[in-house]
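Study this protein:
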Amino acid sequence: MTTQEGTRIITALESVWGAIQKHHPDVPDVVIVTGTGQKRRSTKRLTLGHHAADRWQDATAAGRRAELFVSGEAIAKGGEVVVETMLHEAAHALAAVRGIQDTSCAGRWHNRRYAALAQELGLEPPKRAAKVIGFSEALITAATVNRYAAQIRKLDAAALAHIEESKGDETEPGEDQEQDENNPGPRGGRGRAGKRLAVECGCETPRRMQVTPAFLEEAPVLCGRCRQEFQPREPKPESTLELVLQLGEEPAPAEPVAARVTP
């Protein structure tokens, strides 16, 4: 019998959660579900994941378990985004088991206690709280990417079924949070505090990743293969054309004209 695609997705996500629990034994078991992160077609708001404590009744354990939701749109963004999303929700899971109030305003505002938990799990919270969402924008670090490299590779190689993000969707890391429309997000759309830079190392075939400008400025990020620093990718230079106006027998140069040339 052919394995059902839903089984493949949940099995892959459960494998990542198991890896997180291996590194952080306090992280509890959860019931993992998936689906679309766009709750209403009338809005452009997209949720990558959420954590809901004690949502599921576990008959075998005679207790309740939290729900961990990872959207099909997050899966479409690749293994690194999936791991980052699950670590974001793992911080909420830790807060629940430790009795820590890490959010307020119906889960929108992420406080400094959340920031500390996110950092414990290998995410880098922002230096300053963003409007409406607080310290929610905790991004995966290069060291954490290396720690979960095997899981990221497996997710990418699995080519799981996913949901394509609608054009214009505003991406959210976790719960149903309002957007700060003055802040462009690192994965496109508005409402994610800070932005990301595409960087690459000096290998013959460069390894590439995305980091926040603040993270890159704090200290050099070295490639484990070539031992060179990751640097921002250079934009392709624009080509220029010089037009020469022929008047009579003697050529006279015209005013330089810049033109963009597509290779």
User: Anything to note?
Assistant: Residues 5-23 form the longest helix (19 residues). Confidence is low (pLDDT under 50) at residues 175-194. Helices lie at 5-23, 72-76, 79-97, 112-120, 142-147, 149-158, 213-218. The longest strand covers residues 49-58.
